[in-house]
Amino acid sequence: MQTVVGVRFKKAGKIYYFGPGEFVLTAGDFVIVETARGLEYGEVVIEPREVSEENIVAPLKTVQRKATSEDDIKVNDNRAKEKEAFTICEQKIKAHDLNMKLVDVEYTFDVNKIIFYFTAEGRIDFRELVKDLAAVFRTRIELRQIGVRDEAKMMGGVGCCGRSLCCATFLGDFEPVSIRMAKDQNLSLNPAKISGICGRLMCCLKYENDAYGSCCKKIIAPVVGREVVTVDGYGKVTSVNQGKKTAAVLLNNGNIIVIPWEEVVEKDNNAL
């Protein structure tokens, strides 16, 4: 077991473990740490705690120091430079007539590198663009192609639920989401209704998938469209509520009733 703190470098970004060293750290403290990209400015989001060796990427690096007011000023200056670099890069992309969309620009804390994030349909030959950018900024330039889910995470926005996007607020990593999850939850398979603003299946389909799977194993849900027998007569299942384990049945007399799954029997079943 080792004592670590969790540090995040971006809002809703991945959390990395570092040794606290001799510093007393609490959630909300800003620190300077050494990463593969050099010195970085991050926020402590997990206070010191013990974790097992298998959850640590060796070698475990330690926090260099707590961030000072000068570090805060430097970070703000870098943010201002990023906006300027974004404008310049867009102009260069247009000048080279490249079919790519610039999404974000990031300066490393020590300004040793500028990272330009972009999306594109396919592979882009941006070698000349890199040369132009390096001539302007006189530092290391990295162009990184990202997917549409990463773009949504960086840009942010509001989902169909009316809340801020999960990926932009608290999801550190994307998890696989499949159309099977939507089917298991009896959701509409209309892409417009189960896709996020990124155009991919909504991440929230994953949240309750395990619960739906477990409840369906205990009681077999009625099949929508099947003719069934209920205590009120014959009818057809029109919808199923997986959470409440109820089914809506349109009776032959035109009435609609909502009853528990166990009270629904298929018409060809002899049991009543």
Strand line-up of the largest beta sheet = 2-1-4-3-5
Shape: elongated
What is the structural class?
Answer: alpha+beta
First CA to last CA: what distance? 60 Å
Order of helices and strands: EEEEEHEEHEHHHHHEEEEE
- Sheet of most strands: 5 strands, antiparallel
pLDDT < 50 stretches: none
Tell me the radius of gyration.
Answer: 27 Å
Strand coverage percent? 25-35%
| Mean pLDDT metric | 88
Number of helices: 7
Query: Residue share in helices?
Result: 25-40%
The tally of beta strands, per DSSP, is: 13
Short description:
This protein has 272 residues and is α+β, with helices and mostly antiparallel strands.
Can you tell me about this structure?
With 272 residues, the chain is of the alpha+beta class. It is 26% helix and 30% strand. The protein contains 7 helices and 13 strands. It has helices at residues 69-95, 127-137, 148-155, 166-169, 179-184, 191-194, 209-218; strands at residues 2-8, 15-18, 30-35, 38-51, 63-66, 101-107, 113-119, 140-145, 227-230, 233-241, 246-251, 256-260, 265-266. The strands form 3 sheets. The chain has a 5-stranded antiparallel sheet with strand order 2-1-4-3-5, with no helix packed on it. It has a 5-stranded antiparallel sheet with strand order 12-11-10-9-13, with no helix packed on it. The chain has a 3-stranded mixed sheet with strand order 6-7-8, with helices on both faces. A hairpin with a 6-residue loop joins strand 1 and strand 2 (15-18). Helix 1 (69-95) crosses helix 2 (127-137). The radius of gyration is 27 Å and the shape is elongated. The mean pLDDT is 88.
